[in-house]
């Protein structure tokens, strides 16, 4: 991702769908991922709402966390506790790489694929995709 976003300005479109067939999106006018020496730091700005709300800007300037490399600000490891690697700040704004579950389920607290500002942390989405495009 760093090599793709290192040159020029890239936009990010996040599209998602729930199990009832509802769709929403969030667009960011600037998106990039830093190099390995910066632990793949996320830089994102310029949110435009497509019905999903903004669950990503909160994670701006965070390094990528995984099960074996905790780089979030939470005392525990977000990636390990919530079962997916991401640019976590303190976990609960979005978890697009979480488990694939089936919609609403309060017993799975934040371990599914969720976008908090749209369906909340206990609703696992049917799909979520991150699409980037070079604009200049």
From TrEMBL:
<dbReference type="InterPro" id="IPR002181">
    <property type="entry name" value="Fibrinogen_a/b/g_C_dom"/>
</dbReference>
<dbReference type="GO" id="GO:0072377">
    <property type="term" value="P:blood coagulation, common pathway"/>
</dbReference>
<dbReference type="InterPro" id="IPR014716">
    <property type="entry name" value="Fibrinogen_a/b/g_C_1"/>
</dbReference>
<dbReference type="InterPro" id="IPR036056">
    <property type="entry name" value="Fibrinogen-like_C"/>
</dbReference>
<feature type="domain" description="Fibrinogen C-terminal">
    <location>
        <begin position="1"/>
        <end position="136"/>
    </location>
</feature>
<dbReference type="GO" id="GO:0005201">
    <property type="term" value="F:extracellular matrix structural constituent"/>
</dbReference>
<keyword id="KW-1015">Disulfide bond</keyword>
<dbReference type="GO" id="GO:0005577">
    <property type="term" value="C:fibrinogen complex"/>
</dbReference>
<dbReference type="GO" id="GO:0042730">
    <property type="term" value="P:fibrinolysis"/>
</dbReference>
<dbReference type="GO" id="GO:0070527">
    <property type="term" value="P:platelet aggregation"/>
</dbReference>
<protein>
    <recommendedName>
        <fullName>Fibrinogen C-terminal domain-containing protein</fullName>
    </recommendedName>
</protein>
<dbReference type="InterPro" id="IPR037579">
    <property type="entry name" value="FIB_ANG-like"/>
</dbReference>
<dbReference type="Pfam" id="PF00147">
    <property type="entry name" value="Fibrinogen_C"/>
</dbReference>
<dbReference type="GO" id="GO:0034116">
    <property type="term" value="P:positive regulation of heterotypic cell-cell adhesion"/>
</dbReference>
<dbReference type="GO" id="GO:0030674">
    <property type="term" value="F:protein-macromolecule adaptor activity"/>
</dbReference>
<keyword id="KW-0964">Secreted</keyword>
């Amino acid at each position: 991702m760093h090599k793709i976003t290192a040159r020029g300005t890239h936009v990010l479109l996040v599209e998602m769908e729930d199990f009832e067939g509802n769709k929403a999106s969030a667009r960011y006018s600037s998106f990039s991922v830093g190099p390995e020496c910066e632990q793949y730091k996320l830089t994102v700005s310029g949110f435009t709402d497509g019905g999903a709300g903004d669950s990503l800007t909160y994670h701006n300037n965070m390094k990528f966390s995984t099960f074996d490399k905790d780089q979030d600000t939470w005392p525990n490891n977000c990636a390990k506790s919530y079962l997916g690697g991401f640019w976590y700040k303190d976990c609960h704004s979005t978890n697009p790489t979480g488990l694939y579950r089936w919609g609403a389920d309060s017993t799975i607290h934040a371990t599914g694929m969720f976008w908090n500002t749209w369906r909340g942390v206990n609703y696992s989405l049917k799909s979520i995709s991150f699409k980037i495009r070079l604009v200049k």
